[in-house]
Amino acid sequence: MNRLAIAILCGSLFLIILRALPVAADTLDDVRSRGFVVCGVAENHQGFARLGEGGQWEGIDVDFCRAVAAAVLGDAGSVQFHPLGPSTRFEALRSGEIDLLIRSTTWNLSRDADMPFHFAGVTYFDGQGFLALKSLGAEKIADLDHASVCVAENTTTHQNIVDMSRRKTIAFDVHTFRSWEGQFKAFFNGRCDLISDDRSGLISLRHSLAPDPQAYVLLDDIISKEPLGPVVREDSPAWFDIVKWVVNAVIGAEELGVNSKNVDQMTKDPTSAEMARLLGVEGNLGQLLGLDAQWAKRVIAQVGNYGEVFARNLGEDSPLKTKRGLNRQWRDGGLLYAMPFN
Q1: Is residue 263 part of a domain?
Q2: Is the pTM here over 0.70, yes or no?
Q3: pLDDT in tens, 99-112
């Protein structure tokens, strides 16, 4: 037998063996088979993910997870939440413990290119800041030097402080912790002069955990861009597309003037062709995603548009009273911008 024949025979045997091997189900198949979405969220981050007084999870990240469940399974309540620390979140996603990671995770190049994950959009534009004791008399970082700062390890927060120290020649005594809870306890027990995190997290922290919120001040400095959003594995392009377009649907609904209160009326009488496509009245966008025509209508009816989600978790209807800022719609001077539905 010549070499060509041997090569052909080996190739044929390889194909036979490959076809005989079981094919692993992807994330979308798993979710549909299981009947609920498993989301990795923060352990206790008011406004984003935490257990409320009634024992129900609440927060903007929680709502986006529910929105995905509404689109895929028809019920926003078909969800299960796994609280994760910053050092365990990526392994939980990689191992298949969760279907969707949405816990204040920054989208950057190294994570996007080096990890087997896809970022499915931005649900909150944030920036890193510092919370300090008022007794220090500081309004900005330049007022301090050689201050001690508490940060969570394996986060962009830690790396940003290292970068800032190099750039501004400000020396910090950095204390790292495996979890947010450990970081917070250390700060409020006086082990650090400062704590650094996304500004949204610091606002939540001061409101919910500080023994005396008035004793702490949020410094003026914003030292980084922190675009936060959902992350999925690369094993299911269809799942990635669905999560990505659910995010766009929530944002786009607000832009188009559709909310949980008027969605039925808007479905009967859409005011634009794009609204008609979003709500499944025209076109076949749902079919392109492997969903039914009413997927986005369910998301809006059961969870709301971005403005509603923001208001009840972070904004005027929440204890935090956070201003929209960069998270306003693009036409209002913000960065929110839904991809077109056509």
Answers
A1: yes
A2: yes
A3: 999 988 999 999 99
